[in-house]
Amino acid sequence: MDSIITAAAQALAAGDPLGALKRVALRNDPPALALRGIAMAQLGDLARAKSLLRRAARSFGAREPLARARCIVAQAEVALAARELGWSGASLESARKALIAHGDHANAAHARYLEIRRLVLMGRIDEADDMLARVDSSALPPALRVVHQLAVAGIATRRLRIRLAQEAVNEAQRCARHAGIAALAAEVDSAARVLTAPAARLIAGGANRVLLLRDVETLLTSGALIVDACRLAVCDTNAAVPLARRPVLFTLARALGEAWPGDVSREALIARAFRGKRADESHRVRLRVEVGRLRRELGSLAGVSATPGGFALAPRRAKAVVVLAPPEEDENAAVVACLADGEEWSSSALALALGTGQRTIQRALDALLTAGKVQGIGRGRARRWVLPAAPGFTTALLLPGVLA
Known about the structure:
Blueprint: H1 3-13, H2 17-24, H3 30-43, H4 46-60, H5 65-81, H6 89-101, H7 105-121, H8 125-133, H9 142-158, H10 162-179, H11 182-196, E1 200-204, E2 207-211, H12 213-220, E3 225-228, E4 233-235, E5 240-242, H13 247-259, E6 264-265, H14 266-273, H15 281-298, E7 302-306, E8 310-315, E9 321-325, H16 333-339, H17 347-354, H18 358-370, E10 375-377, E11 384-386
Parallel strand pairs: 3-9
Antiparallel strand pairs: 1-2, 1-9, 3-4, 4-5, 6-8, 7-8, 10-11
């Protein structure tokens, strides 16, 4: 490898894409194409980066497997940055094995971290955690140790293990200072802000209180029965009943949880669950049916008892009932939660990450655009969506993942 390529590679490793481009901007040999692609990715021109890296990988071909594998890893990183989550991990895994076979363990670990980050974005937390456990970060350079700790923090945050997440962020900050790369330091700072931003509202006894993620973690182990409006579930310390696919049942559960220890009138429940302005006999019959279904779903967590005025929630083990709600309520809050990472998302990537249909996502984006809460960039299939400004709260509880 000639000295100019070496100097450009060192500039990229130090987070200086302009310095790298000064050396290779006019060259079209495969190593220069690869470095130009990485530099353009660092500068944010992901479309140009993809094109350059694709040309470099084709030019290297099968006779230079190490360089080609590095290009494949770089392409995967660009795809992740562009929130193109639908790619298969098979080619990335083949590239990782080629890197290990040629002794490039740092880039092999980087390939593994890319797959872990993709799995976390898609809410496949158990798979990501299993994969992370197989990575030995002790011998990695400081920059990759930052990535490792951010992966640990991301998984711990999704599982509401906030002490572990805080320890990982603290270690990432230490490694980032050692690495001296501004972009990594900014990413670590963003992860740290998530842990100290408002995460939810506690509704109990008619009062509202803002909670941080560590407060939510404490609440989940408090023994209270929690009607979780962030993840659409009812849970206590020992069990959780997901109701995301039963919206009417969750609406009833939330109304009863907000009124506990009091009851809610049948008319109020009908208006809230069925959006009926005037309750007739058919509404009352349907309410009795849905309340019966809610009793069966909640099982050993709570009962729903009839009262002279309506219905009341009766926890079986817990001594208190509380409602955990998002900081700001919006029917499209999950879409905003994904966009809150500051990256540009396509509607197809949002649908994949949230496990819903693309048409549903498009309707949500149209509504958010009309309300001025998102911005569209580009046209047609190339259109990407971003938030016009970072929200003043963390959205970790609204992201896909496992129930604590």
